[in-house]
Amino acid sequence: MTSRPMIAALLLAGMMSSAYAQPPLSPKEQYSIDSKRAATRYADDKKLCAEESSSGARMQCTRDAKSEYDKSVKAAKAALKAGPAKQAACNDCAKVLSVNVSEKAGEGSALGVIAGGVAGALLGNQVGSGHGRELATVAGAAGGAYAGNKIEQKAKSSKVWTVAVQYQDGKQASFNFDHDPGLMAGDRVKNANGSIVRN
Q1: Distance of alpha carbon 26 from alpha carbon 34, whole angstroms
Q2: Which segments of the chain does DSSP mark as H helices, in order?
Q3: How far apart are CA 75 and CA 31, in angstroms?
Q4: Looking at the chain, which terminus has fewer C-beta neighbours within 10 angstroms, N or C?
Q5: How many CB atoms lie within 10 A of CB 69?
């Protein structure tokens, strides 16, 4: 029977999405959102339960869905009664100011220089005759070496995501990532292991 894992996954997704709501909502607004989310989830769960193959499985699934709905509503009411949570000062907490993507040039190696030089020399050797051919060969080798180095640098280039943040005390810092960190301006983050993670 797949109803319990599905209900748990939907509940977890709902809790995670409400955890990232910004800016903080009033207790009544949060209760309204949480109760609507619980009702929507309950309706979706009942549709899933209707697809169960036997009547016993459908009944059990419906009972599980109602139980999860009741827990969600109870948690929302408890949060409403508790009022807004007072957040402790967080020296490692910050707000994302901007996320910029740039291209980091790769490093060329001797291989690119040598391959480009050989290709350039071969092409240069096809031009002219006598001393002209020798000059063309040398010029082709030099040009090919330069071009080969640049081509290799371009092939090894990579993207860098630079995330600028501002801490609660007003200080600013930036962090570089070699992959998309999934952050955007306005997101709340905190320091973790020399980098930042979503708060």
Answers
A1: 12
A2: 3-19, 27-50, 55-82, 110-124, 131-155
A3: 9
A4: N
A5: 20
Residues 146-173: tens digit of each pLDDT: 666 667 666 666 788 899 999 988 899 9
Residues 65 and 46 sit within 8 Å (Cβ to Cβ): yes
Q: Are 173 and 189 in contact (CB under 8 A)?
A: no
Longest dimension (CA), the chain: 96
Closest by CA to 185, choosing from 170, 169, 166, 168, is: 166
What lies within 8 Å, CB to CB, of 29 at 6+ separation is none
Provide the 10 A C-beta neighbour count for residue 195.
12
Question: Is the pLDDT score of 113 beyond 50?
Answer: yes
What's the one-letter identity of residue 142? A
Contact 98, 164 (CB under 8 A): yes
- Distances from the Cα of 14 to the Cαs of 27, 32, 168, in angstroms? 17, 14, 28
Strand partners, 102: 160
Distance CA 97, CA 166 (A): 7
pLDDT digits (tens, 9 = 90+) for 116-131: 556 655 666 676 666 6
Instruction: In whole angstroms, give the CA distance from residue 72 to residue 33.
Output: 11
Please return the burial class of 146, using the count of CB atoms within 10 Å of its CB with bins 0-12, 13-18 and 19+.
middle
> Distance (Å, rounded) from C-alpha 185 to C-alpha 76?
29
